[in-house]
Amino acid sequence: MKVAAIQMVSATSVAVNLERAAALLAQAAAEGAELAVLPEYFCLLGRKDTDKLQIQEAFGSGPIQDFLARSARELGLWIVGGSLPLTVADARASGSRVRNSSLVFDPSGACVARYDKIHLFRFDNGQERFDESRVLEPGTEPVLFELPARDGRRWRIGMSVCYDLRFPELYRRYAAQGADLLLVPSAFTHTTGQAHWELLLRARAVENLAYVLAPAQGGLHENGRRTWGHSLLVDPWGTLLGQQAEGEAVVSATLDAERLAQYRSQLPALEHRVL
């Protein structure tokens, strides 16, 4: 199955970002992808954290979700909207918190899975400061969905977002459920990405004997923030199958079910776990 990681350099305008996402998704479909995954906050990288509160949508309704559904239907493509801000039911009165949610749309345009980012990023090196808990409410549950490919193979896919990458127990749980592919849409900072991005992604692939697809924000944004990029697909042996350093791009590569089975047969590490 051919898959695509969509790399973006999202701006402060939702309309502009959706226009760019539409062009990149169309490119992925033209290249033969069955699944295309957008990066974290593909719809907006605002000038301040609270900007995402202004564009929040109730689950199941809103212009960003409508865009994803329409794009999936028109392109005949499975689309994962890397993440967008969804309204928290118990915070509607104040609007002070949202969920950072990743949504899966099938080729009919139906939303078939939702994952809310569980681990919230906090970082302070004296120059850069981030604390997602100021505006985000964490999710609580891992989510795995099945994708029936055109060749009849059913791929089991585990969902995550960005900072989740640092918590291997989440991906081990997916491995225990038979995950073949792990998704990590992200907006890693340049600082942390340069240090740990590829290292962590390849580790998650190798230790779980699964493919990892990681679309990212990559470049200097309108708001002055610089993200690491390096969107990639890595195979269960830790080999990079495709990567893009910075700038808008479609990183396409193919998942090989036979190779996946071969790796798991030759090195049945998942069967040797004792904890």
What would you say about this model in short?
This protein is of the alpha/beta class and 275 residues long. Helix content is 26%, strand content 28%. The chain has helices at residues 14-30, 51-54, 63-75, 168-176, 190-208, 257-266, and strands at residues 2-7, 35-37, 78-87, 98-105, 111-116, 122-124, 129-131, 144-148, 154-159, 181-183, 211-214, 218-220, 226-228, 231-234, 240-244, 249-254.
Question: How is this structure best described in words?
Answer:
- It is a single chain.
- The strands form four sheets. The protein has a six-stranded mixed beta sheet. A six-stranded mixed beta sheet has the order 8-9-10-11-14-15, with helices on one face.
- The mean pLDDT is 96.
- The longest helix has 19 residues, at 190-208.
- A hairpin with a 4-residue loop joins strand 6 (122-124) and strand 7.
- The chain has one domain (2-272): Nitrilase/N-carbamoyl-D-aminoacid amidohydrolase.
- The protein is an alpha/beta fold and 275 residues long.
- Helix 1 (14-30) packs parallel to helix 3.
- It is built from six helices and 16 strands.
